[in-house]
Amino acid sequence: MPELPEVETIRQGLEKYLVGKKIIGVKLKGFILPPSQLSHLEGGRTVAVKRFGKGLVIDLNNKYSLAIHIKLTGQFIYKGPETENITPSKKLVGLVPSKFTRIIFKLDKNAFLYFNDVRKFAWVKVVKTDEVKNLPFFKGLGPEPFRDLRFEHFKRVVQKSKGAVKAVLMDQKKIGGVGNIYANDALNLARVDPRRKGSGLDNKEIEKLYETIHEVLKRGLKYGGATELNYVNALGQSGKYQEHFLTYGRQGQKCYNCGGTIKKIFLAGRGTYFCEDCQK
Ligand SMILES: [Zn+2]
């Protein structure tokens, strides 16, 4: 599932192209929003695009917002005169609209925004801007890296946890934005075994892990996110972090820390990649 770097990359693209544009009309394909709510979107002009954990919020100037969680396969694809020369990935997007397009936003200045979702797990809600923070998903979100995740909080949630440390990193209620890819890579960089109980980590290890979480997320952002299933940025292009994974999907290959072999196991039902030689 797209994580902080992927959703942030989408956010940056949407911010660049949507802010200042007005929604002229909205067409739904299938039931993703009650059609009665479209009147809150039409005529609204985008004033901001925000991200909370893995969720996105598009604020309009009419006191309404569109809140979205793209889940596994949601895609936003912007097309306008200023992006005429940019073609969305043939493999990941193809032509838009497609049979996977769920919403078409017609914008002013000859622009369109498409929302695609192959697996239909994404959710989209129209809410009053004031009430976005009350949506259960946003309300339950833990503090996040680069924003309000302080070391003291991080240390407390890790040390309190009797479960595997990797599960703590991925628990959105404890830490917002980190999922499977970046949790695996952060643990490798910190040389911590993902199966260890959080409560068994010492101060130094927790400090290191706090640092490596930020480091791998920073790399993810730098490469425009990781394309695993069909993640694309707001122009329909794939990310590049998958070419720089430290452990994720690299079972049988060499560990960059020590030359050992990356192993794959399942931990709490999720594919877990680590090096037994250097992750203790
Ligand atoms: Zn290693």
From TrEMBL:
Its cofactor is Zn(2+). Keywords: DNA damage, DNA repair, DNA-binding, Glycosidase, Hydrolase, Lyase, Metal-binding, Multifunctional enzyme, Zinc, Zinc-finger. Coiled coil: none annotated. SMART domains: Fapy_DNA_glyco (SM00898), H2TH (SM01232). It holds the Pfam family Fapy_DNA_glyco. It comes from the Bacteria. InterPro entries: DNA_glyclase_Znf_dom_DNA_BS (IPR015887), FPG_cat (IPR012319), FPG_Glyclase (IPR020629), FPG_N (IPR035937), H2TH_FPG (IPR015886), Ribosomal_uS13-like_H2TH (IPR010979), Znf_DNA_glyclase/AP_lyase (IPR000214), Znf_FPG/IleRS (IPR010663). Residues 2-122 form the Formamidopyrimidine-DNA glycosylase catalytic domain. The keyword rRNA-binding does not apply. The keyword DNA-binding applies. Residues 246-280 form the FPG-type domain. One of its GO terms (molecular function) is 8-oxo-7,8-dihydroguanine DNA N-glycosylase activity. It catalyses: Hydrolysis of DNA containing ring-opened 7-methylguanine residues, releasing 2,6-diamino-4-hydroxy-5-(N-methyl)formamidopyrimidine; 2'-deoxyribonucleotide-(2'-deoxyribose 5'-phosphate)-2'-deoxyribonucleotide-DNA = a 3'-end 2'-deoxyribonucleotide-(2,3-dehydro-2,3-deoxyribose 5'-phosphate)-DNA + a 5'-end 5'-phospho-2'-deoxyribonucleoside-DNA + H(+). GO terms for biological process: base-excision repair. Monomer. Belongs to the FPG family. This is DNA-formamidopyrimidine glycosylase. It comes from Candidatus Roizmanbacteria bacterium RIFCSPHIGHO2_01_FULL_39_8.
